[in-house]
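Schema walkthrough. Field components (list of strings):
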Amino acid sequence: MRIYHFSEQPCPDAWAPEHKSLRVILPSRNCDPRVMAENYHHRLDEWMLADELGLDIMINEHHATATCCCPVAAVPLAILARQTKRARLLTLGYPIANRLDPVRVAEEFAMIDVISRGRLEMGLVRGVPYEVPLSVRSAVGQMDRFWEAHDLIIKAMTSIDGAFDWQGEHFQYRNVNVWPRVYQQPHPPVWITGRSPQNIREIAERGYVLGTFLSGFQTKDLFDHYRKACADLGRPAPAPDRFSYLGIVAIAEDRKEALRRAEVMVGYLRSSGRVAEPFGTPPGYFSVKDAARMIKARGKRTTTTREGKAVDTHHGAIEDLVKAGIMFVGTPDDVTSQLAEFVDNVGGLGHFLMMGHAGHMTHEEAVDQITLVAKEVLPRLQKPRAASKQAA
Amino acid sequence: MDSAEGPVTEKIAGVNIEILRRGKGRPILFLHPHIGIHGSGRFIERLAREAQVIAPSHPGFGHSELPRGMSTVDDLSYFYLDLIENLDLRDLVVVGASFGGWIAAEIATKTRERLSRLVLIGAVGAKFGAREKSDIVDIFATPRSRWEELSFRDPAVWLRDYESLPEEELTAMARNREATALFAWNPYMYNPKLRGRLHRIRIPTLFLWGANDGFAPIAYGKDYCAAIPGAKFEEIADSGHFPHMEQPEAVARHVIGFAGDRPRRRGDTR
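Field assembly_structure (string):
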């Protein structure tokens, strides 16, 4: 079991109730660059602390939003590749179907992998619906494009005998020849997020790590799709290190303080789904059948998305979020037992992705959280399985 | 031609196409807007009193098949060149509304054969304005109620009770929206090459534009008209972006009149 510290690097001062959409159209005049510089430095310091204390590191990216002020995951990854010593560096991830240039993605990954001396975990994501409006390409045929980009990135990283051409349906290149050669052979580990049985099957077929976010106790079903795909292929049951889950952790020595931190962090859930109407359901993102259903439900805010559900969460619901396996809240004992129960429920988990900082949480609080998880939670979770996966 | 009650599915140029055929006589090919064929019925019936109307749903729209690899309006225009040949249409009047007008303009830049008239109703497809702003309102970035206000003088011709719509109609709406994104997402609602090709349209061309169009402004329509040699421009009163839906009688009279007005320029075009 590994635990990855994660923050979306928010710009919480720009979250004002009068803003109808915290995404796509929120003017950047709401961002004070001097404050944001402080935020970035604090988040990087927290990740460096996580590295020192034995946690791993997760970075993500979003675009045109105050909720996650990291539009280029490669930037913090590159800094941390040099400044950290041992942590795995996970990005989850790169929205490769929206990227125009998969070869450039391969080049960024290759450099980060080499600078970190082989610590990159290469996460690829489809991306959220409300960032399709920012993309040069529409969501129509997005998964097709995703897999072609994936194929090209992997080929570009693993081709070490000179240039090749790529003449695909979505991407065309001359003389692809990525330098440097990647540190981890044949290429860094691949993670992909998935929710639909079909998508999870495609991830399982390739033996990649399945990423799941905030899916609570539905996560077991998602992992079961993966296990079933392996069984159908006649492969052995997948090890826990093929599974990852992202949850929110609010931890303190004192239960009351942990609850207070949880209230601060849940602000993230309540605001991250605030998206202006036309951007939430871009054409092509959902199946025709689902899109037809959404037209029928016109005017009603759908609660089918994970974010949608979270927005509906009212005050006092933290207890429910804990019961749902979305938040892990309390003393180190509480959090350890909640996590252990979750791991048992899903049938084994190799990677817990901990949102350990969110919203208006201060640097000092984040430092305290990271320290408690690293010193008091992780060792206890690793104990029963201490013999299995150690550092790569 | 048979005039069946509703649309039928026909295999045309290898593609299963939902097609509505009405009336007899001079053929008119009607190319529907991005919102689909719904709402164009009264206009089609009015035309069919005096002509033979052929009204397909474009590949990917309504219940028409989308062949693999088809992804641009250029592709759609080649499909329609095949359709025109396969149905052996001659002396054809091509009428395109909005997105359908874009397809119609692309067809007319590629051939003069078999075509005799072009009518562009609130057509999009070419770029005339500044690079910092879309010429056409971005349907994908505009709340639906606002889009309705901008597109219609009276949205009642378009609005439906979505809750009671049959599954089939909802599916068609969802497919129309998806196909619009496929063909017109970016560059939004235009082909960068089309403007430079418009001089090749050498059949008599009529622009019809809603006087209250808030989706594609009249100034845009006039720029478009000026790029096509000899094209005429008429405003349709009391109408937004879809005058054939809001003023079907007036628009049909313009089309029939223009189609019947045998050109003095005929010699120029052959």
